[in-house]
Amino acid sequence: MSAAGVLRGRLLCPRPAEARVDEIADGLVRFDAAGQITAVEPAGDSEVPETFPGAVLLPGFVDAHVHFPQTRVLGSASGPLLPWLARSVFPEEAKFAARAYAAAVAVEFCDALIRQGTTCAAIYSSSHPVAADALFAALAERGLRGLAGLTLMDRGAPADVLLAADEAIAACERLIERWHGHDGRLQFCVTPRFALSCTPGLLRAAGQLAERHGLAVQTHLAENSAEITATAAAFPDARDYLAVYEDHGLGGSRALFAHCIHLSEGAWDRVAAQDAAVAHCPDSNFFLGSGCMPLMAASGRGIRIGLGTDVGAGRSFSLRQIMAAGYDASLIVGAPASAEALLWHATRGGARALGLGGAIGCLAPGFAADVVAIDVPAEASGSALFDALAFRRDAGPVRATMVRGRALR
Length: 409
Known about the structure:
The chain is of the alpha/beta class. It has 2 domains: about 5-60 and about 360-405, Roll (Urease, subunit C, domain 1), CATH 2.30.40.10; about 60-355, TIM Barrel, CATH 3.20.20.140. Helices cover about 35% and strands about 20% of the residues. The chain has helices at about 80-95, 100-115, 130-140, 165-180, 200-215, 225-235, 240-245, 265-275, 280-285, 295-300, 320-330, 340-355, 385-390; strands spanning about 5-15, 20-30, 35-40, 55-60, 60-65, 120-125, 145-150, 150, 185-190, 215-220, 255-260, 275-280, 305, 370-375, 400-405, 405. The strands form 2 sheets. Strands 5, 6, 7, 8, 9, 10, 11, 12 and 13 form a 9-stranded parallel sheet that branches. A 7-stranded mixed sheet has the order 3-2-1-4-14-15-16. β8 (about 150), α4 (about 165-180) and β9 form a beta-alpha-beta unit. α2 packs parallel to α3 and α12 (about 340-355) packs across α13 (about 385-390). The longest helix has 17 residues, at about 100-115. The radius of gyration is 20 Å and the shape is globular. The relative contact order is 0.17.
């Protein structure tokens, strides 16, 4: 439990449902002993000193898509998606059968999130129950917030990263019992890696598991052209890639689909109609040569969209780097996104995408005091301040990362 407190500084306050961010040049954020914000107001003649001089205060970043077992292969350039999985990812993920290895990487992973100002993430573990347990334990100990799940895979990969459907679902049930709802910060998320890694029986069981417990679902969708072709061959009766998930009970408002680069207009309309969310991962899309997701076309449909680092195809744990990549991708598709909108998606948008819109992502009464302090140029304000946060790759560091008003270390 945190002590009640107050923060003073330049505040950036994302609006609840509009991709805009308001600035309070000198403000106070008051929070109670439970770490809930009770007031946000101009500082006026308050005697409270500036908490982090030279920094701006904003809601903690929310990483909508990241792979914990790929922490140590970040930046491994071994080809497009499917060859990259075979050459770089599966050999590394096989190591997570060992609890000690998984626990060591979990510490590195949490350190990386905290260092970059990420307070909450949607996380894939490996297919090994001991690794998922180690991940939850590290998140719990470090005070982070997140959705995480055992990655479900029973085909299409080496045997040492596969887990049969019955064993996988039983392991998920144990993890749910132990970790779902822990301290109000952690949730279990049903996590089929992607359609190609799962038999129809496992996909169906995953959908039933999510329905039984009211759980969020995360998976990949339409990332790579070769993947899409292979998925069509593996599921010949499905209308399209999205329908594979819909047909197995893995769509709907609890679903979070990563990438979504190569969706048809009709598929985008169905994503919007079912209120599914999307994790936009522009840096990994560039790195694997997968293409560019049309961010503005998706947001124009009212789809909930967060930004994902997608480590390790993504080359950084920094969502500020992802904002910059998102801007570049938006230029390529001919629909530029502003730095302000990208900052909103990295904070408030991510919270909404993860189904946490009522709890985090705003500096406002009733929301958790999950706050990040970042050094910024003193002269930057308005759009220049957003540009400094999103586009200056050598800009000032994260000064502090807080969950419920408590600094994480």
